[in-house]
Specification:
Helix content: 25-40%
CATH architecture of the largest domain: 3-Layer(aba) Sandwich
Structural class: alpha/beta
Strand order of the largest sheet: 12-11-8-13-16-17-18-19
Number of helices: 14
Distance between the termini: 40 Å
Shape: elongated
Bound molecules: cytidine-5'-monophosphate
């Protein structure tokens, strides 16, 4: 998925490191944040300096690292005040068990915890990425402290699950650098779909002819996955029903159901449709499937010239079935139209054919498999073009559009 370099443009991140072996990942995180357009001020606890040097962190962030509350370089000698007033967010990664305990108690006996306490909560929210051994994470004291810092307004990112530096396996790994960067990007997105349930279909379908062959298409799933990510960033509970694609599940997507055929996609989507606030059908569903699937590979017979003939049968139209099954005053349905020409005309025809209030047109050959696209929003009243851009930016714009429409629907009598 394309990552625009401007995702964190204009954001100033106060990046705090407490002690832990996961400090090594923060070198990469610093690079990624800066590559995304952020400026980064690093602050380290004394324990953190045992794991990675301030020299490394200064070189990567291009700023002197803050190490002590008695730092005489600060004209007013108040690093804990200055750093938080300039920042849009304070991210502590790694956050050790000890640091979380300090936060929970409101202690302020060294620069990092002092700074977290001195933050203006509104303008400098606190994000915390725990990193510790699984027993430390599972300990009731840590769990109590994590619950307390959440109650006090901190956002806890992760931890992940997996191999640990100590050789054990379990919960407590710090999220990877790219995951933390994506969490930060998501954090800054407006929560336009907070609490909404959104189901998205994505990718192609694959209709088997025999165990090794089938009918499919060039859809990569990138547009649908970008919409899933954008909806999750906007605070929605997202279910992603995906045909065969090679894409990782976007962070924040609650549930992913992988399917192969149109019938499987239909079976996965229909029972859940009525419970959704929004259904977006981006999948390029095969219109037909072989009427029979051959149990074994169809073989070329020696001397036989004629190619085998396949009888095709029509697949169910998932979007039309959803639109007919749900109460459309509660579930907002959006379809896609992938065309090769006359986009507006075909998209408009699809509004009626599918029975949905919004169709998003795009030129299939120009976008399948690519990281960019251009959209044409068509509804009963007119059209709006969203010009060419990366798919995530387009997806966010579409989410804004859908959020505005459902808000209007619920607020106008
Ligand atoms: O009819 P057409 O395939 O052009 O319609 C495209 C729209 O309908 C897309 O939103 C697609 O996801 C959806 N669709 C579907 N089930 C089908 C065919 C299309 O949900 N069998």
């Amino acid at each position: 998925m394309s990552e625009s370099i401007t995702q964190l443009a204009g954001k100033h991140v106060l990046l705090g490191l407490s002690g832990g072996i996961a400090c090594y990942k923060v070198a990469e995180l610093t690079r990624l944040l800066i590559k995304s357009g952020a400026t980064v001020q690093v602050m380290m606890s004394e324990a953190a300096t045992q794991f990675i040097t301030p020299v490394t962190m200064q070189a990567l962030s291009n700023r002197p690292v803050l190490l002590s509350q008695w730092d005489a370089r600060e004209p007013n000698n108040m690093a804990h005040i200055n750093a938080t007033r300039a920042a849009d967010v304070m991210l502590v990664a790694p956050a050790s068990a000890d640091f979380i305990a300090k936060l929970a108690q409101g202690r302020a006996d060294e620069l990092l915890s002092l700074t977290a306490l001195a933050r203006p909560a509104q303008s400098c929210p606190l994000l915390v990425a725990p990193a510790m051994n699984r027993e430390m994470w599972a300990h009731p004291a840590t769990q109590r402290n994590v619950a307390q810092i959440r109650a006090d307004g901190a956002f806890v990112l992760g931890p992940g699950n997996g191999d640990q530096a100590c050789g054990e396996f379990g919960d407590g790994r710090m999220l990877e650098a790219a995951e933390l960067r994506d969490e930060l990007i998501a954090f800054f997105q407006p929560k336009l779909l907070a609490g909404k349930k959104v189901l998205i279909t994505a990718g192609p379908t694959f209709e088997p002819i025999d165990p090794v062959r089938g009918i499919t298409n060039l859809s990569s799933g990138k547009m649908g996955f970008s919409i899933a990510r954008a909806a999750a960033e906007a605070g929605a509970q997202v279910t992603l029903v995906a045909g065969p694609v090679h894409l990782p599940t976007p962070r924040g997507v609650q549930r992913r159901i992988d399917v192969q055929t149109a019938q499987q996609m239909y079976d996965a989507v229909l029972p859940q449709a009525a419970a959704q606030d929004i259904v977006v059908a981006t999948a390029a569903v095969a219109d037909w499937r072989p009427a029979q699937m051959n149990e074994h590979k169809i073989k070329k017979q020696d001397g036989q010239k004629a190619a085998p003939l396949f009888e095709l049968t029509e697949n169910p139209d998932i979007l039309a079935a959803v639109a007919a099954a749900v109460d459309q005053s509660k579930t907002f349905c959006v379809g896609f139209a992938a065309e090769s020409q006359d986009l507006a005309q075909h998209a408009r025809a699809k509004l009626a054919k599918k029975g949905v209030p919004l169709i998003v047109g795009n030129l299939g050959p120009a976008t399948f498999g690519r990281d960019d696209n251009a959209l044409l929003l068509v509804d009963a009243k007119g059209e709006r073009a969203i010009p060419n851009g990366d798919k995530l930016s387009l997806a966010r714009e579409l989410v804004r559009e859908i959020a505005a429409r459902i808000t209007k629907k619920t607020t106008t009598p």
